[in-house]
């Protein structure tokens, strides 16, 4: 492949993906609203750009075959704060990709597009949207838009509903929802390398014993997660506070399911874990 | 009921609804981006306001119990032109309604939220979104948002997926998709008067012999359409140009299914019919 | 048909059914724990018997072809009070019917077997059990038992999930859930006269505009309800107290959905209506 | 429409359809293995031809827009006897239609394509095939072939699963399964006149109280049956012999469900009714 | 956890579970209608009690967090013999648990709640009840009751539909239905330790090649069976007597599917295996 | 088992199956339209016979318990060329098996019975037929016929929808669709040795990372594929030509999905691979 564009390249997950994506194409264009990091990969260029501005995003797509779209505000915020980066940003990426004839968008969707479904509802990728936050609603919007661009313009899209992506599982919920960096890399790589995909949705979750979904969907992509949060079970269960009335414990979206609309759903998690979590 | 707010009151359908809604409440506040019409109903007030501006919409909700949200650009346009009125406008209505403790939003959704489904797919209200245009995508966005406001904040919503609402059916497709003004009025009135609704979706289509859906959904609302486009069948079929390869003929969304994204889907219809159609 | 047995013959619905059932067979044996009423029909005999006692029920079945089983305590009570008449009583009827080679049990099941389903869940007869009370749980038990007797012993059963069966609709909920006496009679008569039925479940509800179910199921029985609660809409809606947080308003089971287990779910209804309601 | 071809024009149903189809096109070509009847309609020509012979069928299609394919042996027979007219005949019709660029095949499929489904299984047009005879298996074959010609070559097909089509209902089963000649005519006429259909399946049954299916499918065709076998209920039920262990009574296919493969399923019916029945 | 109550502690499976459950809580109260075994675990107390008597069961729950309810007559019997221990006993356990504020019931349900489903029906935990015996019907009753206690009173329940739980697989059927003691222990342990569960159903079957179900359900519990009956395949298949007309061979319930209601379904199995089997 | 008949014994897959099937029975009768190979297995006899001729096939079944029916033209051809071997041949096998009282037909069905389904449609064995060719249509015909023989005459059938069965995966599509010879052998052997099967359908595909189906169905057969095409991924992906508009790339049937009806679908594959592929 000649060229891949990666948005959100300075985020926790973007940082993980730069190296493997640089091996999938002759040229990797990394972009973020943040400034260029100290070192780049040999075939990588960095463009600081604001997703909310079409004029800054559009030129990046020239000559590319795919865009891996991971750029977004990664937390719940009031709708007006997410409108630019998460909603208009997604539109800008799809529209620019379409104008330049790209083949595919690989998109960081999120469990929060379906975060109000119950853990025991046996949800699969065909379950209807039940966003838990404005953050999740942006993922619903982009997924529906991606299906439309495929059906109307033939632009492929693979929407990866990422669960709890961190170096290690951070809490009892993550025993089910953890996505390891290794499995993330495999999932994105396969979404890129599969020759044709049409429009597809898949859950991004590791091979956890306690995964709340039985099947990640989109089998033809060939995703086979290898990691399992179970090694951390004893430690993390010891800290769990069972509460059957707490939405956060019985819904796929976890704390995003119980947080007030517009307020951060990561606060508690980050306080506990002290690290970066992306969902 | 004390007070109802009607948005889009100057549109073709808003104009139809003003009188019946004025009978459902002590006070009707009609709003539109257009100026006040010459005459108002006795208990009606008119406020010219831009849906895209929260500060203009928010004060209207004070003291209201329900908002009947029909305001929007009613045609396909480039996304940036729809972003304010159709996307942000819907957010403004729901957020303002929630802040003022309204009970319910009755929303003019559209068949175009599912417009790429085939006529013979036996679609019901549980079928997943397949928007045919940016116009339809805005309806998907608002429906998902409405479900979230219900689940997170207890604000009810009834989303009415209106098909082809005109005084008379305009073309062969409308033999199936017509919604008469009488049936529209019944549907909106019942959506308003039903004591509790939670979140619900229903198709707004008359009792047409050739309706592409077998069931309008949300039976507890008590919608029983009475009109049937069949009286116009002979005339309208005579003009039909069968073309099995034309998406416009085999998809629920009709011409919106085949039009290019961002280009008007009403052009052809209006040329043929010379009238107002709202979907 | 030679002989039909009717249990619960002294109840409100049993009283309605005696006359039409007496016309469907040469002999009608009516039974109840209550004493014989003043007058009987020409081909009717009355046997006072306790459903909870197999020895009292078993002999009634001799020579019968069908039993129409409407006998039960018709309200929520603590489980031990329902165990005899509603649980063991149902077993006694099926087992006695089977021992005497009857062809069919026509059973007064109830909406309360599925009473915790939401009004807008588009429930049909294939939805799983969600009993709202010990009263409803007894209906679940009998339905599962009826299926088993059919599959293991070839005893047919038609389980009629009766909604709100009263002379007139009593409250706003009944605008959707009313079953008129005329439609009850039609439903039971057709369940009796259909030549073969196997095991079947059907909803007993009139042709109400606001019915919370779109389809009563078991079409081969030929049930076509004729009455519609809509004539009472204006009066009854005027009394409605909308409350979206009240389970009684948004679940099929109405007040049984929100009442405490073991406490009467009819109290409020009867206070309002002053009459007999059976569900 | 310029030209319609009708196969099986000398059969009971073909005879009913000649007149209405002659009004739908400038030219009607009627064909059958039987000789020309005494009188033809003004715009009708008759060609005696063997469906099993491609060379006899192919030329008839020249210049036609649609073929209404009702020709077949209408009873169960050993497979080798049905192979020519019912299997190869269907292939010949579709292939010839495709070669001559026809728009659509309207096909007399049959309930016997799904005849082993139970009356109380709530079957709709999406239920999988369960043929009851070699006769029904031919209908499965043609339906699957029709879908393929649509998907691969764009030749439309409307497959009408005809139930018990006779002047009057003949027996207790027909209280549910009757299709009146009037409703047949409506169904075929609408299948012909609908501008575009793609591939569709619909049940051909009248508006009977006791219909074993709740919905005839393919609503966009606009089929609204008007007749109801219920007027014959008292007479026909009086003759019914209930037998819950007889497949003929509890399966959609009736006597075809219980007859041995290869043996006539119409024998008993015709003995009872003395008339023509087509399914 | 402070305290767990185990019913049926003297049964074959109860005996297996005592040790692992004693490690999950500070205190294990074991109860059975049988007398105390010779030796107890350090933190275990034994109470001889009759499940059918509320007064004997109720006091055991005081101060407990969970009850693992495995007590029952484990075979098919006439209904009156199962009524006390299996039906009333289940009610007593749930009601007592609810009165004392326990968090959860972990219940030994059984494949026999769905035992009349065919092996090739691809059954999952959402399939409706099809009990094969009065024994299985008691499991249906308790599952429906458990769902109701969760929905009405917030008492969690995990219903484990145990298949053929023995030290080794006993016959050809068990190549699919075996549940090893190790996997039983894992399943119960995870049902206990999962912080919140709501109401859930899962199949208790090992990781057998020939399992008649593809998925055990309730993934968030984290059950990952490790054993596989395939090691016994050659030996056990050699003894198999294929008979496609025998319900015992093609239904999930095996011999319980073909046994007469009220007669022992274990007789044949025990004669073959000479051991304890619990289902 | 006393005797097994294998049809298509000289084909690529028949050749693979002769040895394992010879171990499953005292006597193996291998038949093909081709002449006997040079060497036979000790308990094998060879009969040259034409599947299209009942008189040649019928005598082979005498005394057999099962027939493994793999004989057919293995490519797309005009319908008249497939009619004898693939359609009538299948009838001859089932009818002859039924007349001689065989227990079971194990049938080489094909992915091409459902070849027009999309890769990302999450197809399972309950998806309706969507044949891609006359070759696939013959498989639909035989599957429907097999179900009917089971339901009407009690002749069991296991229909194995074989994907791409070759010694090694031949192209990028086969990374998902490959069926190794080892897994084929396991699948057929288990279909033969399972004591009772009724009518069942299963997908024949190896344990490939990129399998377009998530589940092969018919779990009670105990099929556990062991091979995985992923070892060939790097080599085969390098040759892939992504084209989202090419049906061959996004449908289960691959090149059969895009080939013209009646024209060979194997041509391209064989040109690339130079080997035998059977689907």
From TrEMBL, chains A, B, C, D, E, F:
Key words, A-Z: NAD, Oxidoreductase
Domain NAD-dependent epimerase/dehydratase residues, every copy: 4-164
GO terms of molecular function: oxidoreductase activity
UniProt key word Oxidoreductase: yes
Keyword Nucleotidyltransferase: no
Family: Belongs to the NAD(P)-dependent epimerase/dehydratase family.
Annotated protein name in UniProt: NAD(P)-dependent oxidoreductase
Organism: Histidinibacterium aquaticum
């Amino acid at each position: 492949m000649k060229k891949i564009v990666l948005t959100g390249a300075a985020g926790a997950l973007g940082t993980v993906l730069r190296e493997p994506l640089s091996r999938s194409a002759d040229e990797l264009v990394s972009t973020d609203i943040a400034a260029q990091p100290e070192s780049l990969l040999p075939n990588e260029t960095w463009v600081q750009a604001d997703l909310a501005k079409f004029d800054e995003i559009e030129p990046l797509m020239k000559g590319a075959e795919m865009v891996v779209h991971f750029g977004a505000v990664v937390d719940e915020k009031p709708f007006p704060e997410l409108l630019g980066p998460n909603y208009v940003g997604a539109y800008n990426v799809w529209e620019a990709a379409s104008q330049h004839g790209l083949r595919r968008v690989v998109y960081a969707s999120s469990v929060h597009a379906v975060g109000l479904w119950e853990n025991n509802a046996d949800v699969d990728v065909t379950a209807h949207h039940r966003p838990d936050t404005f953050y999740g609603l942006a993922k619903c919007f982009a997924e529906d838009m991606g299906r439309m661009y495929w059906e109307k313009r033939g632009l492929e899209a693979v929407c990866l509903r990422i669960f709890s992506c961190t170096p290690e599982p951070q809490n009892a919920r993550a025993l089910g929802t953890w996505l390891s960096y290794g499995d993330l890399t495999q999932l994105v790589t396969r979404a890129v390398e599969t020759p044709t995909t049409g429009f597809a949705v898949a859950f991004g979750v590791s091979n956890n014993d306690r995964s709340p979904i039985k099947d990640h969907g989109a089998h033809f992509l060939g995703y086979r997660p290898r990691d399992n949060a179970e090694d951390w079970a004893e430690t993390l269960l010891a800290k769990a506070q069972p509460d059957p009335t707490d939405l956060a414990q019985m819904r796929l979206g976890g704390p995003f399911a119980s947080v007030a609309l517009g307020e951060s759903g990561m606060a508690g998690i980050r306080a506990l874990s002290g690290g970066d979590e992306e969902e």
